[in-house]
Amino acid sequence: MPRYFFHTRIGADTLTDEEGVELRDPDQAWRVARATIRASLEDEGSDPRLVAAILVVTDASGEIVLEFPFAEAIDEMDAPPEPGQETLH
């Protein structure tokens, strides 16, 4: 399985993922990126720098697979659920 690395870029600073994680494909890497961002926002959501942060996912050769802006995940969290995706209480 390919290994993907999830680096967080905040302005000029980059928090580097040295270990990475083995995932099936880029689609699964995208889902893990979204979950990682959401968890970061729940834990550190009061840090205003996170709105401008980007999660950069690379493969084992260092090629960028995707860039996921934290702001995009925030927009998804604030959006109403898709029809059929609502939670029941």
TrEMBL record:
The DUF6894 domain, residue ranges: 3-71
Source organism superkingdom: Bacteria
InterPro entries listed in its UniProt record: DUF6894
Pfam families from the UniProt entry: DUF6894
Entry protein name: DUF6894 domain-containing protein
Organism (species): Methylorubrum populi
